[in-house]
Amino acid sequence: VQLQASGGGLVQAGGSLRLRCAAPRAIFSVFSLYDIAWYRQAPGKERESVASITFGGAATYSDSVKGRFTISRDNSKKTVHLQMNSLKSEDTSVYYCNTNPPSENWGQGTQVTVSS
Predict the structure, then answer these.
(1) Beta partners for residue 98, in sequence order
(2) How many Cβ atoms are within 10 Å of 62's Cβ, its own excluded?
(3) What are the CA-CA distances from residue 14 to residues 31, 59, 87, 116 (Å)?
(4) Do the strands 79-84 and 17-22 form a parallel or antiparallel pair, or are they unpaired?
(5) Residue 81 host element (H or E)
(6) How many CA atoms lie within 13 A of 42 on its CB side?
(7) Phi and psi dihedrals of 100, rounded to 5?
(8) Is residue 97 a contact partner of residue 3, using CB atoms and an 8 Å limit?
């Protein structure tokens, strides 16, 4: 399974971005059964999970983004979004979406750069 992340960009600290994760057509019929997560990897650092959502819609967040990021899903559109508010320079990373736990197919991710 390879999900496609998009919506990244350059934003000033304190700003917002909304990332989109789209499922390939091959898994449309079973998309609603997957738990999905957003991950990020900054240069020189390990990839980390920042937010996840179960097939039933229950969300969890890492401590570093709790209260600032919101994950949501629309099973009818086969998408998962990550609303990122109050962005900080330390949020600068490449963001990926994948299943939770992750498959081996990570896709290209989307770059988020927060300028201070």
Answers:
(1) 37
(2) 14
(3) 33, 23, 5, 9
(4) antiparallel
(5) strand 79-84
(6) 8
(7) -130, 110
(8) yes
Smallest Cα–Cα separation from 82: which of 12, 13, 8, 31?
Answer: 8
Tokens, residue 18: 């909304």
What size, in residues, is the chain?
A: 116
Q: Answer for the pair 27, 1: CB distance below 8 angstroms, yes or no.
A: yes
Closest C-alpha to 36, from 77, 3, 76? 3
* pLDDT tens track, the chain, 116 positions: 799 999 999 999 999 999 999 999 999 899 999 999 999 999 999 999 999 999 999 999 999 999 999 999 999 999 999 999 999 999 999 999 999 999 999 988 999 999 99
